Amino acid sequence: MIIILIVIAIVVLFGPQLWAKQVLARHNREEYFSGDGFELARLLLAQAGLTAVTVETSPAGDHYDPQKKVIRLNPATCGRRSLTAVVVAAHEVGHAMQDHTGYAPLKTRTRMMGNAVKIERIGAGLLLVVPVLTALTRIPAAGFLMFLGGFASLCTPLLVHLVTLPCEFDASFKRALPALSAGSYIPQEDIPAARKVLTACALTYVAAALMGLLNIWRWIRLLRR
């Protein structure tokens, strides 16, 4: 029974991420579009009237920076003329559209991410320092401080991932996919494949949220011992 539960946990936690990588790689092999992801992103931005948003090359990964109004695309993916390239680029344009319309979850995520790194560092610092202080001073509040440290370092990323999920699904299926379909940028027979690519992109964040839940569950088990 324990082995079965372990297998189920592995499938739930790592299955979505592995499937997402496989889907993105498969649809990035064949190049048959007239333009690459960078060109499509600029075209969609121009048609949406988002002239203040720029597109840059970034090996760090595909993302939209709402503070600097920049879409950063990885040339290894979006520099190609493949289905993955144009769909991923359209997805990031979807985030720029969210920012332009004042989409509330995106604004919330942006605020949270600005403080998340600081909170995580404070939490990690408490987890390192409190045991030492407890051994030296025997302070009675050590347990509460450990709780705060664990909450800050583990729960903060989970909250960010949970707020990110509606942003990703909205950017994919309410903005990117309709824009691709309406503009006839990809053949109609490729729409199901484009939907699968967008689903794969969203599932990477689902996997991250599930991993966050697992970390919190392990932390709670340690506290109860």
Question: What would your notes on this structure say?
Answer:
With about 220 residues, this protein is mainly alpha-helical. The protein has one domain (about 1-225). The protein contains 7 helices and 3 strands. The protein has helices spanning about 1-25, 35-45, 75-80, 85-100, 105-135, 140-180, 190-225; strands at about 55, 65, 70-75. Strands 1-3-2 form a 3-stranded mixed β-sheet. Helix 6 runs antiparallel to helix 7 (about 190-225).
Keywords:
225 residues; mainly alpha; globular; 75% helix; 7 helices
In what order do the strands lie side by side in the largest sheet? 1-3-2
Question: If helices are DSSP runs of H or I spanning 4 or more residues, what is the number of helices?
Answer: 7
The amount of beta strand, in percent, is under 5%
The count of DSSP E runs of length 2 or more, i.e. the number of strands, is 3
SSE order: HHEEEHHHHH
Count of separate structural domains? 1
Q: Name the assembly state.
A: single chain
Q: Strand count, sense and closure of the main sheet?
A: 3 strands, mixed
Q: End-to-end span in angstroms?
A: 23 Å
**Uncertain residue segments:** none
Radius of gyration, taken over Cα atoms and rounded to an integer in Å: 21 Å
**Helicity range of the residues?**
over 70%
Mean pLDDT: 80
Main structural class: mainly alpha
> Which geometry do the CA atoms define?
globular
